[in-house]
Amino acid sequence: MGFPTQISPPMPKSAHPPATPSFESALSELEAIVQNMENGQMSLEASLGAYQRGMELLKHCQSTLTAAEQKIAVLEGGELHQLPAISDNGAAT
User: Which of 17-26, 50-59, 61-70, 80-89 has the weakest average pLDDT?
Assistant: First the structure.
């Protein structure tokens, strides 16, 4: 018993790349992908596509966080300082 040898062609790429998602929407999509993959109900092909999309989202989130850290370092005069902890009522502690 063998596996099918026919491979589906890659999905065509659109003429315009999708807009870059916000950090929050990218993180939300990434969490949904992880949850769907953990359910174990996806086909191998769908899992591979989801994994690829998840890696793209992960890289986007990491670069967004790195850029934010760099902005904070500039605002702090080149030194990255620990931000004060925020309590449940929103006050800095």
Answer: 80-89
